[in-house]
Amino acid sequence: QVQLVESGGDSVQTGGSLTLSCVASISINKSCMAWFRQAPGKEREGVALIYSYNQYKDYVDSVKGRFSVSQDNAKNTLYLQMNSLKPDDTAMYYCASGPKSACNDFYPTDFQSWGQGTQVTVSS
Predict the structure, then answer these.
(1) Based on the number of CB atoms within 10 Å of its own CB, is 65 exposed (0-12), middle (13-18) or buried (19 or more)?
(2) Residue 1 pLDDT > 90
(3) Distance of alpha carbon 8 from alpha carbon 37, whole angstroms
(4) Percentage of residues in the chain with pLDDT exceeding 70?
(5) Is 37 helix (H, G, I), strand (E, B) or coil?
(6) How does the average pLDDT of the chain come out, rounded?
(7) Which of the listed residues 3, 41, 62, 103 has the most CB atoms within 10 Å of its CB?
(8) Rounded mean pLDDT, 91-104
(9) 3-state secondary structure 46-77
(10) Segments in 25-93 forming alpha helices (H)
(11) Cβ atoms of 80 and 35 closer than 8 Å
(12) Cα distance between residue 114 and residue 100, in whole Å
């Protein structure tokens, strides 16, 4: 099972930018990779996913135009570029790995491996 380690979380002000990284222990070029987030008292929410083999990407509506997901298969690393951050983006961000079929939708149960999370805090 792949091990995932996220980094890059920080505290920023509204309008700021952050780039999250997720390093995988094995090749992820044929895995569905995703970013989820969970704020206190809320359910885990899918943010972005990517199937790099055919460059398929998808985003939750609330981040479209502001966030960008990418993957460097040579480095086994997943990224999430976050721009124009808002207080509502405050959450623990997790990366996840699953089979190709997991990219059909943002169902957490479709993803088999998860990182430990990295905290993003956006202040107004």
Answers:
(1) exposed
(2) no
(3) 14
(4) 100
(5) strand
(6) 97
(7) 103
(8) 97
(9) EEEEEECCCCEEEECHHHCCCEEEEEECCCCE
(10) none
(11) yes
(12) 16
Best CA proximity match to 117, nearest among 18, 54, 38 = 38
Express each pLDDT in 55-82 by its tens digit.
999 999 999 999 999 999 999 999 999 9
> Across the strands, what pairs with 38?
92
CA 47/CA 93 separation, integer angstroms: 9
Q: How many CA atoms lie within 13 A of 119 on its CB side?
A: 4
User: How long a stretch of residues is the chain?
Assistant: 124
Look up residue 70 and give its two tokens: 């990418």
Q: What percent of the chain has pLDDT over 90?
A: 98
- Find out whether 31 and 56 touch, Cβ atoms under 8 Å: no
